């Protein structure tokens, strides 16, 4: 089997797709991806209710749904959910998870930047940790604007993981030291291997937000795409606190100091 880092005949979108297909196997083992406590689930519910309200049967499109963690949160709140992802290994796990939990979630294979969904088909669009990977975010946001009904909302959960503060960098170094000493084995954590890490770095260097997906830059592009009432919410403390029990001490602190945010915008 060809080493993952040796892929050379893929364009950037192909490489992103291949990367997430490879990550599917361990995705649900990692804190920050899957949810490992009811406290964290409640914190996510609160964030979604704050910006989107209860579902009440409204149609929600969860883009780059992965193994459907966010899709299940939306389903919990009463939305009629469609999860879309372009990595079949992710969708296989998403379908199996929904079946095991008895959830009526519809899953489609597709590209979040070109959904192929009808005009004004959804009341809500969500995504988590997708925006930093976008090749052409303005065109993508225009696509989301097209698919949303008038009055519909998009909720983006993401972060700038490039432009880190001095505190974050110190904590990251301390996490590395603790890990080498065998003192920082994060619960449930399955870190990518060196080939995967190199691929991640190569992808990050070539996407639109290669210098960091700061919330203000994302918000500006949403406005340019036609969205209004753009709100940046950096109050992620309840989620970080709940996640911390599944991270080592320094890793939990590092995560809490990163520029993470939710952005809600209306059509």
The 3D shape can be described as globular
- Main β-sheet description: 7 strands, mixed
Order of helices and strands: HHEHEHEEHEHHHEHHE
Helix content: 40-55%
Low-confidence residue ranges = 1-9
Let me know the number of strands: 7
CATH class: Alpha Beta
Mind telling me the C-alpha Rg? Answer: 18 Å
Briefly note the CATH topology name.
Rossmann fold
Q: If helices are DSSP runs of H or I spanning 4 or more residues, what is the number of helices?
A: 10
What is the CATH architecture descriptor?
3-Layer(aba) Sandwich
Strands of the widest sheet, in order across it, are: 3-2-1-4-5-7-6
The CATH superfamily label reads: Vaccinia Virus protein VP39
Instruction: Briefly note the structural class of the backbone.
Output: alpha/beta
Content of β-strand:
15-25%
Walk me through the topology.
Elements: H1 12-27, H2 38-52, E1 59-63, H3 69-76, E2 80-85, H4 88-101, E3 106-109, E4 122-128, H5 137-147, E5 148-160, H6 166-180, H7 194-204, H8 215-224, E6 228-233, H9 237-244, H10 249-257, E7 259-266
Helix pairs in contact: 1-4, 1-7, 2-9, 5-8, 6-10, 9-10
């Amino acid at each position: 089997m060809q080493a993952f880092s040796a892929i050379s005949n893929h364009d950037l979108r192909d490489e992103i797709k291949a990367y997430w297909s490879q990550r599917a196997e361990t995705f649900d083992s990692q804190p920050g991806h899957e949810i490992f406590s009811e406290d964290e689930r409640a914190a996510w519910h609160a964030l979604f209710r704050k910006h989107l309200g209860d579902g009440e049967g409204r149609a929600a499109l969860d883009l780059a749904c992965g193994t459907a963690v966010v899709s299940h949160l939306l389903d919990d709140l009463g939305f009629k959910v469609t999860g879309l992802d372009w990595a079949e290994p992710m969708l296989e796990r998403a379908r199996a998870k929904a079946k095991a939990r008895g959830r009526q979630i519809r899953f489609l294979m597709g590209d979040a930047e070109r959904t192929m969904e009808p005009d004004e088909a959804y009341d809500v669009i969500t995504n988590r940790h997708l925006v930093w990977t976008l090749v052409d975010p303005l065109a993508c946001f225009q696509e989301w604007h097209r698919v949303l009904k008038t009055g519909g909302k998009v909720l983006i959960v993401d972060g700038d993981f490039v432009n880190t503060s001095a505190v974050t960098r110190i904590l990251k170094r301390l996490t590395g030291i603790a890990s080498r000493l065998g003192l920082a084995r994060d619960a449930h954590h399955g870190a990518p291997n060196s080939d995967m890490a190199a691929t991640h770095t190569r992808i990050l260097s070539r996407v639109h937000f290669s210098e960091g997906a700061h919330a203000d830059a994302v918000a500006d592009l949403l406005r340019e795409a036609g969205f209004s009432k753009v709100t940046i919410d950096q109050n992620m403390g309840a989620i970080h606190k709940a996640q911390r029990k599944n991270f080592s001490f320094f890793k939990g602190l590092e995560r809490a100091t990163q520029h993470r945010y939710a952005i809600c915008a209306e059509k």
